[in-house]
Specification:
Radius of gyration: 20 Å
Number of strands: 16
Largest sheet: 8 strands, mixed
Helix content: 25-40%
Length: 352
């Protein structure tokens, strides 16, 4: 039996922690993806005749064979690049590791950086950061921290504008947004009439720490010269709780934040603060099983293996606690499923 231990253990044995960023910093992204494709082909040809096992952080020995691996798209708009992931043998759905640079990395290890400058909100630019965004979005929000079985959400676009929130070198959340003038949809000529906050997510262990409000603050500062800012509609009750808290503390932004339908003409906007004051905002639900949007869409991991979903269908994600994840999505992108946010639970909104 060939045991493939967790990456943290291997790194420790080499005399110090080496993150995935350290490993692939000088490696071409195409080389990494091609290596994963080759390994996936090798696994599929063995038809279960393998002696390779992965030791998960929880100590479970997971056999690496065609029944325990999934080959899923890294980007929603580019099927050429795919990620090879290992799922829990017991449920067949919980992702425990990702194959990169010739080895299996646990989900938690992928989200760690040895770079001390990784602190706070940082723009996603490198290939490794794209992978971290994918892991947070599709594997953590969609699987390990999802509130139901077979929950999974489609990846972001390859050039999605996003920021990851780093705490002590660990990726704990993200938000994505659309610039004014960006195309609303590849199949249309309509462009956003204002900046739009699209998706937000905060990991469970970091909720109720004010990260949701910090993301709204950052979003406001990034577009400080804009008189109006959008948040994709529909906004979940949990996200309204975050907005209420943020706008109460920042009166100058009360006239700037609007709930919008794409592309965001004035007839498609509703002032968020006004809705809150008039009591028209949906009340935040206390139950950990509350769903974020009335059009909640969830998809099984098997569906992600061979996606054939039109641009107007993109499931939103979920989260339980108040502050978890907020997805607002213009392509009716994921919809948050559960949340109880104080700062952003998995909630998604669709912008079109």
């Amino acid at each position: 039996m060939t045991e493939l231990t967790g990456t943290s253990e291997r790194a420790a044995g080499l005399g110090g922690y080496r993150s995935l960023a350290d490993e692939i910093n000088a490696t071409d992204c195409h080389v990494l993806l091609e290596a994963a494709a080759k390994y996936y082909f090798q696994i599929s040809q063995k038809h279960g005749d393998t002696r390779e096992y992965f030791s998960s952080p929880e100590g479970e020995m997971i056999k690496v064979d065609e029944t325990s691996v999934r080959y899923i798209p890294l980007y929603r708009d580019d099927d050429s690049g795919k990620m090879l992931v290992l799922v829990c043998s017991k449920t067949g759905e919980s992702v425990v590791a990702v194959y990169l640079n010739g080895t299996w990395w646990s989900v938690d290890d992928i989200l760690k950086s040895s770079d001390p400058s990784k602190e706070g909100l940082i723009q996603v630019q490198t290939f490794w950061e794209r992978i971290a965004l994918f892991v947070l979005n599709c594997l953590v929000c969609g699987f390990s921290e999802a509130n139901g079985h077979e929950a999974c959400f489609f990846p972001h676009a390859s050039k999605e504008l996003a920021k990851i929130y780093w705490c002590h070198g660990e990726a704990v959340g993200f938000y994505t947004y659309k610039n004014k003038g960006n195309l609303c949809n590849p199949g249309t000529s309509e462009c956003y009439q204002l900046p739009v906050l699209d998706t937000v997510f905060v990991r469970k262990n970091w909720r109720r720490c004010g990260l949701g409000s910090k993301m709204l603050q950052d979003y406001s500062l990034v577009f400080s010269r804009e008189s109006v800012l959008g948040i994709s509609s529909p906004i979940s009750p949990a996200m309204y709780t975050v907005c209420h808290k943020f706008l109460t503390c920042n009166p100058k932004d009360q006239d700037r934040f609007w709930e919008v339908e794409a592309p965001g003409y004035w007839s498609q906007r509703l002032n968020i603060w006004l809705k809150i004051q008039l009591g028209e905002a949906p009340a935040t639900q206390k139950s950990s099983t509350d769903r974020v949007g009335e059009h909640d869409k969830r998809v099984s991991i098997s569906a992600i293996k061979h996606p054939s979903v039109p641009d107007d269908k993109d499931p939103d994600e979920s989260s339980d606690d108040s502050d978890g994840s907020v997805s607002l999505g213009n392509h009716r992108k994921r919809k948050s499923v559960k949340e109880n946010v104080e700062e952003i639970p998995t909630k998604y909104m669709k912008a079109t």
